[in-house]
Structure prediction request, 1004 residues.
Amino acid sequence: MSATVERAPGTLVRARDRDWVVLPGTTEDLVLAQPLDGDREFVAALFPDEVSEPGFGRPPALPGEAGDFASASLLRTALRIASTAGAGPFRSLNAVAVEPRRYQLVPLMMALRMDPVRLLIGDDVGIGKTVESALIARELMEQGSARNMTVLCSPSLAEQWQRELRDKFGMDPELVLPSTAARLQKAIDDPDRSIFDHYPVTVVSTDFIKQDERRDTFRHHCPDVLIVDEAHTCVGTGGNEQQKRYELLSALADRTERDRHLILVTATPHSGDPQAFAKLTGLLDPSLRTLDTTRSADRDKLARHFVQRRRHDIKRYVGQDTPFPEDRDTQDALYRLDTDYARFVADILAYTRHQVRGADGDHHQRMSWWTALTLLRCVLSSPAAAAATLRTRSLIAATRTPAEADKLGRAAAFELTDDETAEGMDVVPGSLPDEDSATPGKPPKGRTSEAQALADFADRADALAGPETDAKLRTLVDRVKRQLVDGYDPIVFCHYIPTAEYVARHLKEELGRSASVEAVTGTLHPDARQARVDELTARRGRHVLVATDCLSEGVNLQEHFGAVIHYDLSWNPTRHLQRAGRVDRFGQPRRRVREITVYDTDTGIDGLVLKVLIQKHKDIADQTGVAVLVPDQGRGVLEALASALLLRGRQPEGQLTLDFEDDPDFGRAREALHKEWESAAERESKVLTKFAHSGLRPEEVEAELDALRQALGDPGDIATFTRESLAQLGAQPIGDARGRGFKAPVDPLPTGLKHALGFYEDADQSAAPGGAARAKAKGRAKTAARDLVFREDLPVARGEHALSRTDPAVRALARYLLDAAVDTGLPPEERPARRLGVIRTAAVDRRSVLLLARYRFRLTLPGRTVTDEPRVLVADDAQVLAWRTGDDGSRAWLSDEETAALLTATPDLNTLPALRDQQAARAADELGDDEINGHLKARGQLLADRLRDAHQRVREAAGQRGRERGAAAVRRIDVRPSGKPDLLGVYVYLSAPAAQQPAPGGDR
Prediction:
């Protein structure tokens, strides 16, 4: 019998007591197949002699088998959820838990015209670059153009990427960090197999993998898709670490070695340095390094690989509004130092000047210079930061050369670093010159006069702590209270860990029970930071989050917070942009957000940095629409400021009368910086429109998107389906007190479903083949609480589930309902979804029959190159067809619009069991009619033609039309029906009068 079974890709076969879908790669000796309605992770190789005709057939019209309206609706929704191999041109959207905004489809459409994909996504902060890049990667993997992928990012962003890929894109990424790499490698049985060959999706620390001992291994085993986050940190002249990153990326981007897909992501592709931008674009294509973007032809060439939009480009895009905050209310919170604090700052300044001006030798002077500058920054931050750095050994003092001292000093004082992020920048730099840190009240034996002076200063700093003597803290408390009164929960950003802890402690005392306050700093592991934020926002009432710049990027806080307060100014303008971007982004429910900057009017230091760097950065962005990084990271003007402060400044003893405006060196440095900055911004603004890609035509593929949305269902359908399914199975949902979801008991559920969800009665079941693995996949230990918890929105806590079609629990529930609907041997109470149904409704005036069918197709896509074999994929598409029975018994097939209207019909009268069985049996018998089978076959070919046209139209709309290679690729796309459709369900709609007095002919 097996010799006659059709084994073409997409057809059904039966083996091992279940039905399977035959996949490409099947040979005469082995049948490669995937379980019907099963995960792709369970693909198996079947022997030909165990394969037989499929058991899936027409719905059996057994007595009592027909269900009601609810059971039919459950089956339709279950089929939508279980389908993961969509036949349309956007295959990835079947497997993601988010519906991308229309503007977010532009990078995907650009990617569809490339092979390999080489794309730079430079969209503004808060637009959704993570979604855009991950969507491309998922699409490449769904289409078979890639088997695996890696994201290169900073360690502090690794967990964020992992969450995004897992929760929104249905992937299972492994983190490759210094703390995890050895464990991941040890878990692989083959010692010669790389982590990147074994795990399909990885998130990797760039600075970990770029080291010499790991770089070559990664180069040889780097996956098919490579996403590089914060790509601008890999180019430029930042130093040795940045150069290593660039060398790694250059090797990975080399197309002579391997044609992998490369997606570069950064909100700041323009650093003001044309050479750095050329290096960045040169990673995509070496010929882009020599382009002159002032020339139209060169801009056209670059635009094929580069997309960059600002908010005004996409706020309303192709008829869709994106709810960004309408405005950002910026405020300055000025304060004057209290008398004792001002005297303390003046004495520190006099001391540091004496140390710098009296230093012997170049190295000693550079150490004194940078130690003095970092000490002043700590003193102006808070008494806690001042005391901490005064009692901590100076990192700069441990250097051995002037160059080393300059490198560490610039990083600490100016926040200029060639590291990837602000990770580690919130630690106080230290001031002590000797090996021993001081203990308050207990000077070490033999302490130098310098160390004793610093210890005395530390004691003075301790005495200045608290709102009574710290005007900056008083100002903050006042501003925080104002925000809370106005309904804004604020995030307070501090530069140093001791400052954040100091501020949080005093805010807790001042606010009492009116608000919950927590601090998140670099002392916490990145994953623990998000957990602390979640704990804070889960509390009732108002919230205040105090954080260092470890939270200034990669963490989305817009759902719970509406204001940002800069307690400490960052001397790097990009940090301010990133801080504000935590709340001023897509998904912020407020129309206006607030940004408040706290600074003193005594020293003039913060005011000058605000004016020369931060405000200038904002002005350039507002005037030109381009966010250009400060040239050379502002080193020249900051060093001129430091020179004016430490070498040339004078003031009466114990007073602060600093004035930098008249310093000639500072003035010249400021003018040079602003001239270079404005020139770079003007140059980039002239070409920005080209890279917004407003000429792409997403509206031309709107039909495909609408069809996909109808196939997948509305998010509200998922919540209704989950609630009703659980209730029908005896696990009555209980609403959450905050209205964010519900929970349901597990114990009443059928045993098979409980196991699919990862719940087991004992350890033996959990340890059974597939049991432990499945439990782990669901994030559920066998000792976990016996409740299923569902939340309306992402993110969800560990062990909870999102009401989305890609959530493992929702998908397990859908697959159980599909399997149970076919298994007529199960008890009725375990089969809430039925393949037969009869309802009486006023929505029809004649007997109408609705048919739920699943088609499978062989989708042929062009190979990676002209000489490569085409890629053959198996896809499925659920269709709803309907006919109306005439007076003479003839059938009139309904249009798509009429069928859609039929789906919304609701029952108006009960149906007698005998009538239900009679009508169900009649409908089941009709499925063998030649006319119906002919219509189903013709519909399958029509769908295949439509799908082929859709694939071609999407690629043409993406710009492939007119290009010789692209046009040839479009012509090689083919879609064909594979086998007969699965007739999943048939449902009869009777008019209310006909239901009461059925007629033997047309049931009018």
Observations:
- The chain has a mean pLDDT of 79.
- The longest strand covers residues 871-885.
